[in-house]
Amino acid sequence: MKYIEQLLKGNKPVNLWLYLPFPLFFVGLMFLNWIGTKMLHQSTSEIIRANIELYGKNINFLMTVGPMIFMLLMLLAWVLGVQKQSFISLTTSRSKIDFKRIGVSFGIWSLCIIAMFIFQYISNPGNFEFNLKFFPFLGFLVIAIILIPLQVAFEEYFLRGYLMQAIGLASKSRFVALIITSLLFGLLHLANPEVEKLGYSIMIYYIGAGFLLGIMTLMDEGIELALGFHAANNLIGALLVTSNWTAFQTNSIFLDLTPVEEGSSAADLLIQVGILFPLLLLLYSRIYKWNDWKSRLFGKVLTPKP
Questions:
Q1: Cβ-count burial 121-144 (b if 16+ within 10 Å, e if not)
Q2: Are 150 and 72 in contact (CB under 8 A)?
Q3: pTM for the predicted model, two decimal places
Q4: I need a labelling partner for 281 at 20 to 30 A (CA). Which of 29, 51, 169, 217 fits?
Q5: How large is the angle between the packed helices 164-171 and 203-220, nearest 10 degrees?
Q6: What local confidence, expressed as pLDDT, does residue 304 receive?
Q7: Would the keyword Membrane be found if you checked this record's keyword annotation (predicted)?
């Protein structure tokens, strides 16, 4: 049985109305948070800067990712307790979760991140400052190793799991599920300070990453590869290099001092999304012997006849 069709496992009836409350609750919270920010007449960057001055970078990081941990617990309680869906069927079409897939995906993208950083550092060493402070970094390392995988898990289980399965079943289209969840992934990052500093061109990356993760999920019939990629992207990135204007401002090893106007241009983003991401998908397709791309990405979701 394919990943989206996991909802039909055991020929149990699926009440699609039960898939509305949690997304409405989450979107409502995001909207209230946005309204609150507007009422304070402060940018996201200013709020983050004020929190860092008051509490320090590690506590600010806890405040940033903490709500996502709460939302993960809420989501799992709803899915497992109310909708009675198994955790494995929310994760994969396989009989058990493939942790090796998570590790392989994490390792491959971690190497890519480190390689890209080395290239940037060699090209423009003056744009980076060695920022390692042992004890603050050690504290952040412990926090990050625990919390970032949980933050990533919420985004993946909510978008590539919960919503992709529900939208796929409701629309009977794998492609509709891919389109909607990928666009939502981008929109969830709309309030990030990166958008404020770099402009809406950064959405090329966020939406492109959403499509990458969605294609991984549909082609591999599970979210293990997406979990590994996303965890590497957030964890290794936060530990290795951050700046004073991104969503994650952490006690990282390096500080990126690149002037904002010299940051990621639309062309740079298109190269990453249009070249690097497809190459990554090609590599995964060779490793896991993906085939029948048309059916897996554009095919109908098969539901039993009444």
A1: eeeeeebbeebeeeeebebbeebb
A2: yes
A3: 0.93
A4: 169
A5: 70
A6: 60
A7: yes
